[in-house]
Amino acid sequence: MQYRSLGKTGLELSNLGFGMMRLPMIDNDYGKIDEILAEKLILHGIDNGINWLDSGYSYHMGKSEPFMGRVVKKNGLRDKILLATKLPVWEVRDKKDFGRLLHEQLDKLQTDHIDLYLLHALSDLRWAKVRDLGVGDFLDKAISDGKIRAAGFSFHDELSAFKTIVDQYNWSFCYLQYNYMDSTYQAGTEGLKLAAGAGMGVVAMEPVRGGSLARAPKEVLEAFTRSGKSWSPVEWALRWVWNHPEISGLLSGMNAMEQVEENLRVAGSAGQEELSKEDLAIIELARKTYKARIRVNCTKCGYCMPCPAGVQIPRILEFFNNRHIFDDKRGGTISYTMLLTPEQRADKCVSCGQCESKCPQHIGIIEALSESHKELS
Question: b/e per residue, 266-280, with b = 16+ CB within 10 A?
Fold first, then answer.
């Protein structure tokens, strides 16, 4: 295992972190963790150098944090690893909720402190809400009281919102969705460099895009084969992320032993700035091959916005495209239902046509929204 510094925190992270959002399940029920298998996978990872576990308040229907706490306590791991979890900002109604939720999470984790504490899935609107409720003062006090060691956030919004959030608190680290298909998505590479330049540690989420990049279509597999390397689609994706020196580590939601083994093997040998021009050209070819599967030619320019009905047109078309690019029906539905409110979804379109009159790509947006809703819902 290799280790990298988490920005100005002074903490050393294993290249690979164990994400607790996609643990093995019983009867394919997200609320029923296969605890025997999950514990076996986690311990195998730790025995081979993983030194941080990452959970969240809502993962596995609220079962992930208590499970992580039990595994850590049962196996005497607390002094050997770092624990990360996230404050569910959508549960905050009053500034008193900050402390209430933190203490609830400390109890679930059976610990007196959380090493890496994040505000979960920040967007422009969510940040504005908790900022105005005094979340900065709350984080400062939690750090001074020893209840958390470092404060950060995970991010799911546009680059402009990321720049605002980075600028408005003295963050130690952040989590970004980052893989070779998402280098210009949300914060993207520009956000990565901005955060690292500010001394923040940066952790990559979704390095294999929730498994989508592991299920490479024939055309992408052919592109990788031309390299002459025996790397799997997963290895190509992981090595691309680790190639960036600004990355402090990446999270992988592993739910099978073969996944743990492959990730550990690659983590032990992948380095910074090691990919050749030829390797990067192969990845660019794979990216273009994926992009050719796009259904709606939306560039997310935003000219169609704001929609008078409140529909989030560019994001919906993005989810719809991703469903077809990656043959990922489940992921598209999860994104559509979890990242958009009912009022923002495509079925709220009133067919006024304002968006179509403004679209520089001349997209039939009304029809595309209708088709998107049928598939994504």
Answer: bbeebeeeebeeebe
